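Re: weekly structure request thread

Next one in the queue (412 aa):
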Amino acid sequence: MGHTQSDSRKKNQLIEILEKQKQDLVVRFLKKQVEVEAGKDFTDKILSSLSSLFFLLNEELIVVQANQEFYCCLEYSAEDGEPLSLKQISGQKNFEIVKNALSKGEFNTLETSLCTRAGKEIPVTLKGSSYTTESGRVLHMLIASDRSDYQTMMTRMSEAQEQLIHSDRLASLGEMAAGIGHELTQPLNAILLYSRNCIKALENPLQNRSMLEGNLNIIIDRVNKATSIIRSLKNFGSKAPEELTGVNMNEILLNILEFLDSRLTLSDIHLHLELDETVPLVLGQEVKLEQVCLNLIQNAIQAMGKTERPVLTIKTGLQMGIDPETLEENQFVLTAIIDNGEGIDRAIQEKIFDPFFTTREVGTGMGLGLSIVDQIIREFSGVIKVKSSPGSGSCFSVLLPPHHKENQRKGI
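Done, posted below.
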């Protein structure tokens, strides 16, 4: 009887122990579940607070988790339940680029774009990293920064720069009004003179046949000259956008000098040209590089306004220089504009490329010329330098990289 009671007591104790262990397991499980849920809530809160687009891809490159900004920006909904693939949100043309970047395990600042549900491309900067979980599951974490506002701002800045360049060109036309008038007066006076000669010669046309033919040929030539001037004015005043292409700096300089011929003559400036016919083309836009050369030549002419014997020297050639992008020494196409004018003080040389800085009298210039020149040269990966001292003239050197078709860049 005593033995039976002892066994019963042991069974009860064992049951109590098992019940307690069961309760402990339940409590620990519930605590763990609460921790997991709390961790999930915490993670969701962090993700929802991110202004960047966060998304997590599995090994099959399917989105398994993303923040609200991701769904909002790409016009999807987390409640849709439809699986989103990397190819779907990156687009066919960017899919391989992002996929190759992910294969390296980690990458930073990949410039690409993501596609919305409607197919609109959103420019982004993408950062990514890959890791493997304890269970062997491969996950790819990506963070994308929307660059739409930045691109809009850059577009507006580019448009503003184009407007400034166009305004500067029109201002240059105004400054050259006297020379333009002289250019057109010459052919018009010749046309008037030879037309009167033709009228007189018509009194005896047979006897004056050769003179009539000669005068009419001269009239035709002068009409063509006037037409050429008007055409160049029209082209110069236009602001049609151009694609980047190979540009011949010698041709640009010769065209501008032909345009400024009357002004050089009126200012009694001796022109000395040293153009290297073997220099390669440079990559740029003809209108913008024309504006660069025109500004520099006009500044040289103005600087020699009080010089007794003004001489304008223009050179082209090849010169070694430091590439501003790679900081390596490379070969550049040189365009040098040299005058023997009043020169520039060293303290002023440090400011001449600043916007709105000018040494002219109030009301005679906005001070945008050299600032625009500097922006254009930088845009085409070039450098502009000045060497000058008071009373000894100035030399402005423009260095532009040679154009090679195999490394041509697209528009700016």
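The chain has a mean pLDDT of 75. DSSP finds twelve helices and twelve strands in the chain.
Next request, please.
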